Amino acid sequence: MEESLTVGTSLVDFYCKCGSMVDARLVFDKIFAKELAAWTALVEGYGRQGSSKLVMELLCGMEEEGFRLDAKTLASVITACSHGGELEAARKLFAEVIPSQDYFVRLVDLLGRANELNAAVDMVSSVESVSNVKLVVLWRIILDACRRWKNLEVGKVAFKRLMDLDEFDSAAYVLFASSYD
Q1: What's the CA gap between 166 and 64, in Å, rounded?
Q2: Residue-by-residue DSSP string for 73-97
Q3: What is the dihedral angle through the alpha carbons of 89, 114, 104, 69, rounded to the nearest 10 degrees?
Q4: 178/181 Cα distance (integer angstroms)
Q5: What pLDDT, on the 0 to 100 scale, is given for residue 32?
Q6: Scanning 39, 57, 140, 148, which has the fewest C-beta atoms within 10 Å of its C-beta?
Q7: What are the alphabetically sorted keywords of the record (predicted)?
Q8: 10-residue mean pLDDT series, the chain (181 residues)
Q9: Model pLDDT, residue 171
Q10: Is residue 142 helix, strand or coil?
Q11: Are the beta carbons of 73 and 43 closer than 8 angstroms?
Q12: Are 64 and 47 in contact, with CB atoms under 8 Å apart?
């Protein structure tokens, strides 16, 4: 394991997916020549656990080792920030990269979880060159967050935008109706 990066990285990923972060970290620490894939596997694992502070520590370690975030690692970090409530850390990271559509989905989800619904609406409204399918996903995320936070005002905006995209979107009707519960 110490000599085979593929085996080591696979074990890190395996233990992370099983929720055994102690074992994942033990294997990670034994990998002799770590590559980005091993770092990303551990970042994803801690992110799934909501351990955003440990993810940030890993980012520092990656930088010290000379690694730069790739798209997959960045997406995992933003997800970890979202699950850990680290809004400002995610915003800072987001500002440092050229965002792709996948990052927008993750950041809008983060804003929704943090009850930053107006910021989420502003972000989705300002996105250019996004497919209608992706816009539907983004507006549904906002509508779901509005339901969760009982924000009917922003929920109405999201629902209207969804109806403009697809008036037969049954998920939008269900989410909007459940906002009144």
Answers
A1: 48
A2: HHHHHHHHHHHHT-HHHHHHHHHTS
A3: 20
A4: 5
A5: 85
A6: 57
A7: Repeat
A8: 81 95 95 90 90 89 88 82 82 71 82 94 86 92 96 97 95 94 81
A9: 94
A10: helix
A11: yes
A12: no
